[in-house]
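User: Teach me something about this protein's shape.
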Amino acid sequence: MHAAVLRAFGPARNLWSEEVPAPAEESGWTVVHLRAAALNWHDVLVRQGRYGSPLPHVPGADGAGIRADTGEEVVILPSLWWGEGESAPGPGWQILGDRLPGTYAESVRVPTECVVPKPAGLSWTEAAALPLVGLTVHRALFTRGRLRAGESLLVLGAGGGVATTAVALATGIGARTVVTSSSAEKIANARSLGAVDGVLYTEDGWADAARSLSPGGRGFDLVLDPVGSWAESLRALRPGGRLVVLGASRGERASLDVRPFYFGQYDLLGTTMGSPHDFAGLLRLLREHRIPPPPIDRVFPLDRAAEAHEHLEQGRGFGKVVLTQN
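Assistant: First, the predicted structure itself:
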């Protein structure tokens, strides 16, 4: 079968279009013939060698396609072997495309429990764009962040998959959402998904500007930070608010003043991905609320995976980057 293969860690050009053996049927596993595979920033880290993937390697966590055994249209849950507890994953947990061959291919084999019927009304590209970011955001907002209807939310970094999904899900359940971004255009796009307003994080004092957009200017109930700006995020919170951290794209380290933190009665919550229970909650939310489909920024054929990675790393788009079969 055709696949995008990584033979050495490094830049996007290290992804090569090749022919590799197709996955074989095996008890407890299901082969999915893929129609689309979405990119995530996590894939870039895999390509760079951050997770020690075996080489040569086929990356990719997100995918949607046809079950080889039943012909059913499905999406893939990329969170493998989460474990029994809901508070955190167990020691055997991994993300599809880290150690196992991923979705940058014509077919992929995954544990059978990770194959779920494709949500009604989604195209192949939209369905492929949903699982990793939808699962991650659902857990961040609701399981960890305890967001409720009527509360206020600040989402950092409008434009990426996490931020666009967060705006859609939070608005869908009745939360008031504000975003930050590097461009006015992305803020306008976020408004089309339901955000009430936004601020430019490229300007000095953006945390105070964002806080002024919260109800009464007192600060947000919840801040979702996928970039690593902890100090500014806390400044935008109300006393007793919650900060959920799920990424470090702008900073691997954060420095906080301890005394204001505990006097502020803040919650600092870390999260990544989610469990099958979280994924079931995401699909239930999609059925019960009017949630727009994941916005798609650009679609590339599978044999242009390197170009798709370069586009993703430029950070200029709004929504998900998706690979489709040639």
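Now, about its shape. DSSP finds ten helices and 17 strands in the chain. The longest strand covers residues 29-38. If you'd like, I can walk through any region in more detail.
User: That's plenty for now, thanks!
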